[in-house]
Each structure stands twice: as structure tokens, then as C-alpha cells.
Amino acid sequence: MKLPKMVGLNPKRKEKLLTALIVLPPLLSVFFFFYCFSGWNFFISLTDWEGFLPTQNLVGLRNYASLFHDPLFWTSLQNNLLLIVVFVPGVIVIGLFLAILLDRKVRGEGVFRTIYLLPFALSFVVTAALWAWMYSPRVGTINVILEKVGLGFLRANWITDPNIVLYCIIAALIWQFAGYSAIIFLAGIRSIPVSQIRAAQVDGARTFTLYRRIVLPQLRPSFVTAFIIFMCFALKAFDFIWVLNRGGPGYSSHILGIAMYKETFGFDRFAYGASYATVILMLSLVIVVPFLWRVYRKDRP
Amino acid sequence: MSLLKPNRWLLYALLIFFAFLALLPLWSCVVTALKSSKEVILSTPVTPPMYPTLGPLAQALEYLKRPLLNSLVLVGAGTIVSSFFGSILGYVFSKRKIRGCGVGFVLIVLCLYIPPQVQLIPMVRVMSNLGLHGNLGALVLLYMVFGIPMCAFIFKTLYDEIPDSYTNAAKVDGAGTWTIYRRIILPLSVIPFVVASLLQVTIIWNDYIWGLVLTTGMDNLPVTVAMANLKGSFVAEWNLQMSGALWIAVPTLVIFILLGKYIIRGYSGK
């Protein structure tokens, strides 16, 4: 009966082996698909690889140099910054506002919350189709409604007008994400101890003061969460705009994600596309890493 | 109290106004999907159909039949595999604090924020080397792995709510890691599994970019890619487009309406 022990399979070791066998395959595949790929993408950006040709020569940072001399890169970056600067605060403010409304002991709160969240259930492909119809210049919903309520002078060409297309896209994206933003803030508001709010009310604080002095300062974590999520979304955004109008008209809604896809799969400039992707990754990391650092540093033993 | 009343009125007016904004594009989609091409031109985009027809819905279904099936396969495979592994990883991160666990978990969370753009080119390369490029199989493999970080995160957060004393008591009794998982954690995992799998179902169903890059041919397309093609080829036929959009939208809308509270649990914790 001593034999199994001699082989070295005591229960403790066996369990460790089993744990490794169960945990390692998913961990390694995630590591491979996310981290190895990120590194590999960076490596590709240092080559002159085009399409499926086998030749690949290291060219150092040449792709990044061309990137900085490429007017299209600056246009995409500029559009992307505009998207960030308008979309992120917009969706946060509207989400917060909806959360405050929902928190006012509303009858049918669940129904309203569900309705606000519905656009978030949809694929960008679906919402792009819906908003193409909303914004359609001749027969589209918005122009027809404006006409009917006597505001016909506000009719516009919306997504076919290069001057306002990006704002139209931002409005649609805020529509899609406002409910999500609202549930982040609602969860934040609900986690504030009721006693604090009661105390302020006893002291005679008006609703407005109550929110400004007691609620908003304690929503800091919700603000940070929402900021990170929507920033990262705005940096990698692609689907909605691609399906809606391919970054057009012209280059008026051309953002980094669109540029990356077009360079890579439209023009077969894989290495150049990879350098776009690296820029997107770096911008995302600049935002996320400090956040994760702060959140998880204290968890470490 | 009479002073409060106008306030309450304003509150409900605002709530209803925002509900109206949230629903308007959906309403416009539904009524247009039920109109004939002629009625689309003759009526406004918000008036209900005078002569409702199922023609466009049937035509769109004919076009999207196979892609709908493909997406169903992807959702099934991706959800089952990634929530299974997510549950195991979540358990290890939450209750078995092995060395390196903290760093491992942060690296898993970071995956949620890595933009897909950096994975596109290597993925295309790997899938062509595996002979899967263009194939539905490429997406099956991909979604099995891509859901793991989010599932692991959700399971870890929800398992953290189970008191450590439960598992410690079993440990004292000599139960091993996997006995504890099977006997204690798994029976308490119904809600975590519901939350994680609902999230995966909607994410995989709605995903577009990976299908766009990795699949070709109607037999392999997920429904979102087929829909984007439909949108491109029937530009002026709004009733057909809205019908296609509706077929894709209905499953996730139903999930959000009936099981929204689980979705909210998954998203508000992040």
C-alpha cells in the first residue's frame, strides 16, 4: 500500500496537478489571444508586411513615422478626439440625470429603467440601421416629425452633411448608451447610506443642495467607472460608424478604428494598420492602467 | 404638499419624455417593418400601418435564415464554454488565493479594455494557418475564449459575496479544492451562471467586427454581418431593412425586458 506514495502522487500533489490542468488551458488561451496578440501586433507594426505576402522585413519605426506624416491619421485622431470630448461627458451627464430622476421614488421605476436600457440591448448593426432611417434626409423620421410639428426650418441633411455628421453619430451613441450610464449611477446612488441622506433632509437641505453636497461627491467611483468604460469605447469605436456610412461622407466621420480597418483590410497594408492599432491600444492603456492600478493595488496581500 | 405637486408632474413629464426618446427609433422600426414599400412612401415613418403586411418580415427572414442559425450556434458554443471556464477561474480567484492570483486577476480584467483592433491582424493570421479563415469554426473558437475574461470577472465578483467561512469549514473537514467547488460553490452558482451567460448571449449575438473579418460566404456569416450586407444592398427599401433589424433585435430585447435585472447586475458592478 506504500506504492502510490512512492510514485509521488500524494493527495496534495495530485490536487495541485489537477488544479493546474483545469485552470491553465483557459488562462493560457486568454493570455495568448490578448497579450501575445497585442505584442505580435506591435511586432507587425515594425515590419513592412503587406497583405498575405510572405515577405516581412523589419523596418523599425518607419510605419509610425509615416503615420505622423499622414494627414488622414491626424484627421482620424481629430475626429476621434471630438467624439471623445462630446460623447463621454454627454453620456455621463445624461446617465446621471436619468439616474437621479429614477431615484426620486418613482412609480413604475422598473418599467422606465427597462425602457431606458432597451437601446443598449441592440447590436450596433441594428442601431446603425435604425438611425440611418431616423436621419434619412427625404423621408426619415426626424425630418418628417420636424415638418409635422411646424419646425420644418430645422430640417437638415444630418448624416449626409459633413459638418454635422459626427454630432449626429454622437447623438445616436448617447441614445444607445444613456441607459447603461444610468444604471451605473443608479447603483452608485443606491449604495450611499440612507442615514446620510436622512440627516441632510432633517437639517433642511433642499433637493438640489442634497444632490450637490451629499450625493454627487460620493458618486466619485461611479464617475470613474463610467469615464473609463465610455472612454475605452470611444477609442475603439468602429461598428456603428462603419455600418452607418463607412466614416463618410468624405472623411468627416473617419476615426481611428475605421482608419485601422481600411488600411488593413481595404488596402492590404497590414503593417501600417497594425501601427494604427498600436496607437489605439496605447491611448486605451494610458486611461485604464492607472485606474486598475488604483483599484487593485490595495487588494494585494 | 401642494407645492410638491408641480415638481412631481415635471418629474413624470421628464421620465416620459426620455422614455419617448428611447422608444422612438424602435417604434419607427416596428411600424415601418410592417408596411408595404408603397405605404412606406405614402405614410410618415411614425404612423402605424394602415394595411399591415408580414411580407417584408418574411422576405428578410428568408435572407437571414441561415445567418440566424449560425449566430445561434456561436451563442450556444461561446456562452457554454466561456461561462464554464469563467466559473472555475472566478472560484480560484475568489476562494483559492494561490500565489500570483492578484496579478492574474488584474491581467484578466485588463483584457476587458484591450481594443479588438490589436487582435485583428494576428487573429486573421492564426485562423488562416489553422485553415479556419472564412469559416464559422473560426468564430466558434474565438468566442469560446473571448468571453472568458468577462465571465471570470463576473463570477469572481459574485463569488466574493459567498462568505469564506463556508469554504473554510469544508477545508477543515479535509475537502479538496474541487470537492469544495462541486459541493459548495456550484450549487450556489445559479445566479452567477444566469448573469454571465445572459451577458455572453447578448454580446456574442450582437458582435459584428469578428464576423466581418473572419467569415465569408452566406453559409458562414453571423446574422449581424448578413444584416449589414442587407443594409448595403437594399438601400432604399426601408421596410426590408427595418424587418432585418427587427429579427436581430427581438431576441436581445426580449432578454432585456424579461431578465433585465440579471443584466443590470452584470453591468452595474463593473
Any key phrases for this structure?
heterodimer, A: 301 residues, mainly alpha, MetI-like fold, 14 helices, globular, B: 270 residues
Give a topology summary:
The complex is a heterodimer of chains A (301) and B (270).
Chain A: H1 3-7, H2 11-45, H3 62-68, H4 71-102, H5 109-117, H6 124-135, H7 141-148, H8 165-190, H9 194-202, H10 207-218, H11 220-236, H12 239-245, H13 256-266, H14 270-297
Helix pairs in contact in A: 2-14, 4-8, 4-11, 5-8, 6-12, 8-11, 9-10, 11-14, 13-14
Chain B: H1 4-33, H2 37-42, H3 55-95, H4 101-111, H5 117-129, H6 136-146, H7 148-159, H8 164-172, H9 177-185, H10 190-206, H11 209-214, H12 223-233, H13 238-268
Helix pairs in contact in B: 1-13, 3-6, 3-7, 3-10, 3-12, 3-13, 4-7, 7-10, 8-9, 10-13, 12-13
Describe the structure.
The complex is a heterodimer of chains A (301) and B (270). Chain A has 301 residues and is mainly α. Chain A has a domain at 71-268: MetI-like fold, CATH 1.10.3720. Chain A is built from 14 helices and no strands. The longest helix of chain A is centred in the first third of the chain and has 35 residues, at 11-45. The two termini of chain A are 41 Å apart. Residues 1-6 of chain A have low confidence and may be disordered. With 270 residues, chain B is an all-alpha fold. Chain B has two domains: 1-53, no CATH class; 55-268, MetI-like (MetI-like fold), CATH 1.10.3720.10. Helices cover 77% and strands 0% of the residues of chain B. Chain B has helices spanning 4-33, 37-42, 55-95, 101-111, 117-129, 136-146, 148-159, 164-172, 177-185, 190-206, 209-214, 223-233, 238-268. In chain B, helix 3 (55-95) packs parallel to helix 13 (238-268), helix 4 packs across helix 7 and helix 12 runs antiparallel to helix 13 (238-268). The longest helix of chain B is centred in the N-terminal third of the chain and has 41 residues, at 55-95. The radius of gyration of chain B is 23 Å and the shape is globular.
